[in-house]
Design a protein that fits this description.
Layout lengths: L2 H13 L1 E3 L2 E3 L10 H15 L6 E5 L4 H11 L3 E4 L10 E8 L4 E8 L8 E9 L3 H13 L2 E10 L7 E5 H7 L1
Parallel strand pairs: 3-4, 3-7, 7-8, 8-9
Antiparallel strand pairs: 1-2, 5-6
Length: 177
């Protein structure tokens, strides 16, 4: 286990809670945010993609924004977040539906055609990967833009999928008890 994973695990054990598949991290990741921890996690993820010649980092509003901004900053590229409400100022756009199992609601994600273009190489970032609904919506948006998804990176992967880069998996968290 690398330093970022070990640090995150210790923080979850100290200030969070693991209850089956529910991981409570609102005291340091997704309600109140520890910027030093985000920077550490972002450094780990950015190092995995430093040689991939990316054009953009893309995330969904809201929990992925802090990590996406930090990773994009380290890679020297812009980040875009898919919005949950389409502002009046957004002209042409890409859109796809996503269902949040945590919030028990469906929402539509919107990305302006002005900020995501044909042929761009994109890294998708989020805090958690669970059932894949957000990623599915992001993949639809990337396809609409005729861009290319180069990778998906999350802080915690709660699924059995191994094509999702993560700092920790649910299995690792449960094994650490």
């Amino acid at each position: 286990m690398n330093y970022a994973a070990q640090t995150l695990l210790e923080r979850i054990q100290r200030d969070g809670k693991i209850d089956g598949e529910i991981i409570k991290v609102d005291r340091f990741l997704n309600h109140m945010v520890d910027p030093q921890l985000i920077d550490l996690l972002a450094t780990d993820i950015a190092s995995r993609y430093a040689e991939k010649q990316l054009d953009k980092v893309l995330t969904a509003e809201t929990s992925g924004i802090m990590l996406a901004q930090a990773v994009a900053g380290m890679l020297g590229i812009p980040f875009v977040y898919a919005k949950k409400k389409r502002p009046l100022t957004m002209g042409a756009y890409y859109a796809a539906a996503s269902y949040s199992f945590t919030k028990q609601e469906s929402t539509t994600l919107y990305v302006s055609q002005e900020v995501l273009g044909h042929g761009e190489r994109v890294l998708f970032i989020d805090d958690f990967f669970a059932k894949g609904s957000t990623l599915k919506a992001i993949e639809e948006i990337i396809a609409q833009a005729r861009a290319q998804l180069i990778g998906t990176a999350v802080i915690i992967n709660k699924s059995a999928r191994r094509d999702i880069d993560s700092i920790l998996t649910l299995e690792e968290l449960q094994a650490a008890g």
